[in-house]
Amino acid sequence: MFDFKFAINSFPKILSVAPTTIILSVIATIIGLILAILIVIIRERKIKVFDSIAAVYVSFIRGTPIIVQLYVVYYGLPQLLVALRSMGINTKTNGLPVMLIAILAYSFNASANISESIRSAYHSVDYQQYEAAVTVGMKPTRAMTRIVIPQLITNFIPNFSNLFLDLVKDTAIVYNIGIVEIMAKANILSALGFKYIETYLDALIIYVSICWIFAKLFQIFEVVARKYISHTQELI
């Protein structure tokens, strides 16, 4: 039988670690966005050598499960530091924070997915608008910042929202490297009380709530961005 009392008592305990999930997701997304912009610049400008490296990197990340990437960083980063130390580079090879490892792994994952989303949004903008603006005397930089980038942003927000929410849900596996977040706490409590459906239902409610809140925030941001960009373009 479903134990309502156990579920109710477990809920605040699981909720208490929700900030870990949110912090990991937000930081990884911010770092991933910065890396994604660099990747897009490299690929769109077709910078020699780096273009090929970026393409392989994106293909590798998008073609492998996040848990594999997490394990590669978790086990590979300490070995890389050991190798650097053997080469005479002063590195600390012990005691790497698991949170740092998780942030790096999720940042790499986010950077590849976000970069493809940015490229898609960029190519969805009618390039003839940019050419027309330059033809009538607008500087290329101004045409890019006032015409192309604003439209790119509005086209990018919905996909960015989906990528962020996917990342929030993907953090459910970081308990594999010892981080106590929502799913880890649910597993701990369920193992102690031998009541699994109760704690997993609590975790489900918390995940749904977090994703709903952020989805609404992104929707509000999208509406505000579209109004601002529409007003700005009227002034051009």
UniProtKB/TrEMBL annotation:
The chain crosses the membrane at residues 20-42, 54-75, 173-194, 200-218. Residues 18-218 form the ABC transmembrane type-1 domain. SUPFAM superfamilies: MetI-like. GO terms for cellular component: ATP-binding cassette (ABC) transporter complex. GO terms for biological process: amino acid transport. Its main location: membrane. InterPro entries: AA_ABC_transptr_permease_3TM, ArtM/GltK/GlnP/TcyL/YhdX-like, MetI-like, MetI-like_sf. PROSITE patterns: ABC_TM1. GO terms for molecular function: transmembrane transporter activity. It is a multi-pass membrane protein. Keywords: Amino-acid transport, Cell membrane, Membrane, Transmembrane, Transmembrane helix, Transport. It is found in: Cell membrane. NCBIfam families: HEQRo_perm_3TM. This is Putative amino-acid permease protein YxeN. It comes from Lentilactobacillus sunkii.
